[in-house]
Amino acid sequence: MAAGTLVLTQPTLVATLTLMGFCEGSSSHSMKYFYTGVSEPGQGLPQFNAVGYVDGQLFSQYDSNTHEALPQVSWIKEVEKEYPNFWEQETQNFQGTEPVFKENINIAKNRYNQTGEVEASNNILL
């Protein structure tokens, strides 16, 4: 699906946006973030979720229930030694993205006259 593609399905509106960034250098590693939001989540499920992957391995998870980025692998402790504020910054980034994502869902609902559930996802590849 092309970047910025909006896909409409009834009764659900699904929006997908893919942003690609490239790092200079000869690194053979990849870091990807995936953001998902729904307008009407089920009981106990988060309205907003963000996950981070390095080389295809989940390393970070955040959702609108916990409001905190949490490590998912043990090797991340090495990163924490070099960047002691890593999780605080990760949490702040996700907390800043959450309200924007929720507002974008509301805009999409209004723009396309959707009254039911809306799901949106955003993938950032670094």
From TrEMBL:
Q: Does the keyword Lyase apply?
A: no
Indicate how the chain sits in the lipid bilayer: Single-pass type I membrane protein
Signal peptide range in chain numbering = 1-25
Q: Which organism does this record belong to?
A: Salvator merianae (Argentine black and white tegu)
Recorded hits in PANTHER family, A to Z, give: MAJOR HISTOCOMPATIBILITY COMPLEX CLASS I-RELATED GENE PROTEIN, MHC CLASS I-RELATED
The record's annotation in SUPFAM superfamilies points to:
MHC antigen-recognition domain (SSF54452)
- Protein name per its UniProtKB record: MHC class I-like antigen recognition-like domain-containing protein
By its UniProt entry, which InterPro entries does this protein fall under? MHC_class-I_related (IPR050208), MHC_I-like_Ag-recog (IPR011161), MHC_I-like_Ag-recog_sf (IPR037055), MHC_I/II-like_Ag-recog (IPR011162)
One GO CC term on file: extracellular space
Q: Which residues form the MHC class I-like antigen recognition-like domain?
A: 28-115
Q: Where in the cell is it found?
A: Membrane
Q: Does the keyword Amino-acid biosynthesis apply?
A: no
A GO BP annotation: immune response
Q: Which UniProt keywords apply?
A: Disulfide bond, Glycoprotein, Immunity, Membrane, MHC I, Signal, Transmembrane, Transmembrane helix
